[in-house]
Amino acid sequence: MFNKTLLAVLLGSSVLLGCNSNNDEPLPVPDTGTETPAPQPDTSVINLTDLDTVYGYASENGGTSGGSGDNKVEVTVCTGEEMISAIKNKDPQRPLTIWVNGSINLQNAKDTRIDIKDVSDISIIGLGTQGEMAGIGFNIVRAENIIIRNLRIHHVRANQGAPGDGISIEGPVRNIWIDHNEIYNSLTVDDPTLTEDQVKDYYDGLVDAKGDAQFITISFNKFHHSWKTSLVGSSDSDNFDRTLTYHHNHWYNVNSRLPLFRFGKGHIYNNFYDGALESGINSRMGAVIRIEHNHFADMKNPVMSLYSQEVGFWQLIDNIFDNISWQDSPADGVVAGENAQSTGELSVPYDYSASLLPVHNVKATVLAYAGVGVIDTPPSPGLCAAPQPAEPEPVEPEPVPVDPVEPPTNVNWGSYDASLQPFAANAVTLPDGSQTAFAAQQSGGVDEPNLFSANGDGTVTFDSTASGADRSRAKLDNVVAADGVYPKSFTLLMGIKGNAGGNRVLETEIALGDSAATSATSRLKIVFRNDGNNAGVQLENANNGSSITAGKGNEPDPLDMSQFRVYHFTLVLTSPTTGNVALYVAGNNTPLLQLDGVTMRPASNNTDNYLQIGDAGSSSYLADIDWLLWTDAAAYTPDMLKGLLPAGIGDISGYEAQP
């Protein structure tokens, strides 16, 4: 593996310098008048020859072979739909290798992520330098023996019904090898309306591992331009004995989490860290990390334990700290500091000696070998066919003015009173008086779990905290008139109680497509949140493509999202893609949030027409649902609806009849 020729030359030179053919006296050393300088360390590139060998924790538990094997199936894909189909239709008795020959994106996947879920023995590898995941990431859940190599994975947006990571690993998972990829986002967002916190949350992690994730190796990757780079353990309560190895990765132009590691055991060796704005390796909650032969340069706090209820530990073995800025240890944490010492010890169970470089060779060798286009792959069968050009969008007419609405004398509500779980027969009453039920959805062709449970008191609990990666959605189609006539109006009222545990509460989505639509239409995605400073009611991408949150936890008048209240939304679409949105709370006629004349978030399909509640995946949600009411007759304010809510649905605080 090492450059044996160079080693032989150096050894030969040593022998010649020590040889005197005439006698045993040493050769005289000329007096130059200066001290002889100390020998400089070798900083050259080491010649690596075994890039296809799995080292680290992924070599344990029987090893990680992915889609290789004598009876493997091989497919080459150009689109996300082809990749999803190959995974979905995999023969469970045969390994599968997927060669990626082009750019996989949201448009050609027709989904927000690539699920590698409840499967095993799969390799996904880019051909040459052509494999790309542009704006869409991998979601690995309940899977084992998975390999992802030689792909550029970048700009995967958060908050789009997916984990938001380049690669999300959600346990239980075993034997995952992430190797020779380039994974990145951006430290800036071209949207001057976003706050600094919103810019940091625009993208999520590059590679994250949560839950029971073991026997994972992350090697020879380039990680760059990321705020939240690599997370191991989603919270201080995510208590699993995770085992991960990071080796020969190049980290640069990043902010923090290199990685952030809670619980379990980590081995980090032969990485080159080149700049970090805030911090590097953050060992927390009793994690023990062996940090060995790494080169840290031009960064702040390469090794520390901050921001958790308990500290983590590290073993430092022959690392280079070059131009480092150390902060003093705070009262509630530890920073390794200028005279960094080990605080723990970890013996790893595998042999990695053949891959361990001398520390002075790490920088040059990692720069030479990390990223895509380094490993050997089969030749490309040719470029993927160019997608068909989109038809030009028709010019929309000027928006029609929206006249004020007179208070109604009665409202024909669509209603769900939560006396039954939403999929039960006759759980929903439609505006014409007929009854139906919400429909359960599928992810990747598999039925989503039912995470709604009736409590017997007229409320339903929605709970996805057991596995934040699971989707669970209840959908009701045809909730707004599909007559092609604008303006369209919609009013939605929801009686909801959140949670006190810091979990998100519920997702709700309204799509206002039209059966006759030939161009883009709109939807509104609402996320009720109770996670720290991000708590409040978030409208995703509703404000001309930007998200906006009302009642945030760090604002002067935050909403207590753990309490019951009535949330009231009105939408008026003046055209298929533009309109007005208002949010009222607890019957107050002054909007908590109002958007006028904004471009709405586009519907996934132009004809989408539905009301949906639940969790689209990637976070944990917990809520009690008391009732939902909706109508497409008009955009009614709270004052217009006093005394007009159906009797017996539950707590209607703020909407009682006026005296």
TrEMBL record:
Intracellular or extracellular location(s): Secreted
Domain Pectate lyase as annotated: residue spans: 68-302
UniProt signal peptide: 1-18
Predominant place of localization: secreted
Keyword flag Secreted: yes
Composition-biased stretches (Polar residues): 33-42
Superkingdom of the source species: Bacteria
Secreted keyword on record: yes
SUPFAM superfamilies, alphabetized: Pectin lyase-like
Region annotation (Disordered) ranges: 22-42
Family classification: Belongs to the polysaccharide lyase 1 family.
PANTHER family for this protein: PECTATE LYASE 18-RELATED, PECTATE LYASE 21-RELATED
Protein name, UniProt field: Pectate lyase domain-containing protein
Taxonomic source organism: Rheinheimera muenzenbergensis
Lineage: Bacteria, Pseudomonadati, Pseudomonadota, Gammaproteobacteria, Chromatiales
